[in-house]
Amino acid sequence: DTAVSQTPKYLVTQMGNDKSIKCEQNLGHDTMYWYKQDSKKFLKIMFSYNNKELIINETVPNRFSPKSPDKAHLNLHINSLELGDSAVYFCASSQLRQGNTEAFFGQGTRLTVV
Amino acid sequence: DQQVKQNSPSLSVQEGRISILNCDYTNSMFDYFLWYKKYPAEGPTFLISISSIKDKNEDGRFTVFLNKSAKHLSLHIVPSQPGDSAVYFCAAIPYTGNQFYFGTGTSLTVIP
Questions:
Q1: What CA–CA distance (Å, rounded) separates A103 from B49?
Q2: pLDDT tier at A97 (50, 70, 90 boundaries)?
Q3: Helices (DSSP H) in chain B: which residue ranges?
Q4: Residue A17, φ and ψ in degrees, nearest 5
Q5: Is residue B2 very low, low, confident or very high in pLDDT (cuts 50, 70, 90)?
Q6: Chain A CB within 8 Å of residue B98 CB
Q7: Which of A95, A58, A50 is nearest to A74 (CA)?
Q8: Cβ separation of B91 and A103 shorter than 8 Å?
Q9: C-beta separation of B82 from B15 below 8 A
Q10: Which site in A61, A69, A113, B33 is 20 to 30 Å from B15, CA atoms measured?
C-alpha cells in the first residue's frame, strides 16, 4: 500500500485551464503539505494543513487553493494556469513533534502548462 | 530567503570510496535535521535524521554529523555504491515544529 499517493503523475494542460491534483495519505498523520519543485530543483513549501486546518500559506498566487476534506486528503486546485506554473508538485505528510519526525512524500505530479 | 543551503549541486565519487555531502543552515531555531534521497520521477524518501542534542547518528553505511556551533551538517556514505546515485536533500525543522525547510539538493553520482 502506498503511504502517500497523489494523482495524476503527469498533467499536461493549456494556459488558462483549471486543474486539480489529489493527495491521500494512509499513515494517520495529522499534517499534510504541498511542495513545489521548480526548474532550479528547489523544494519550496506552498501549504501545510494540520487536522484540516491551514497552518502555513506561503507566498503563493491565490490561483492556488488547497482543500482538505479530511485529515487524510489534501487536494490542490489551480485556476487559470500559467506557463510559470510548470513544475513538479509533491504532496507530503508527517506527524510533527513526536520524536523521530519525518515527512513522507508522494511520487510527485509533473505539471506542464503549454 | 534560503535557510538551508547545499552549496555543492553535484558530486562524483568512485564506487567503494566515501561520499561526503554538506549542508549549512542559518536559523538557530532548527532542532531536528533530516536527509532525504530522491531518484528521478520519484518523491524524496527519508534516509537518516539527527536531533540537535546529538552530534552524530549512524545507520549502516550512512552517518550524519551535526556541528551546531558552525550550523553545519554532513552526510557520509561509506562505502559508496552505484545505487546511491541520486539527489540528496537535507532538511531542517524548527523547535516550533510547523514545517520542513529543504536545501536545494546535491546530485551524487557513484562511478562503478
A1: 11
A2: low
A3: none
A4: -75, 165
A5: confident
A6: yes
A7: A50
A8: yes
A9: yes
A10: B33
**Are A113 and A13 within 8 A, CB to CB?**
yes
Instruction: Kindly report, residue by residue over A3-37, the tens digit of the pLDDT.
Output: 999 999 999 999 999 999 999 999 999 899 999 99
Cβ neighbours of B32 (radius 10 Å): 22
Q: Is the peptide bond before B44 cis (omega within 30 degrees of 0)?
A: no
Residue A96, all three cell numbers: 510533527
Alpha-carbon gap: B97 to the closest alpha carbon of chain A (Å): 6
Report DSSP letters for B77-103, one per residue: ESS--GGG-EEEEEEEEETT----EE-
Q: Give the residue carrying C-alpha cell 499534510.
A: A32
A-contacting residues in B 24-43 (Cβ below 8 Å): 32, 34, 36, 41-43
Residue A76 grid coordinates: 490542490
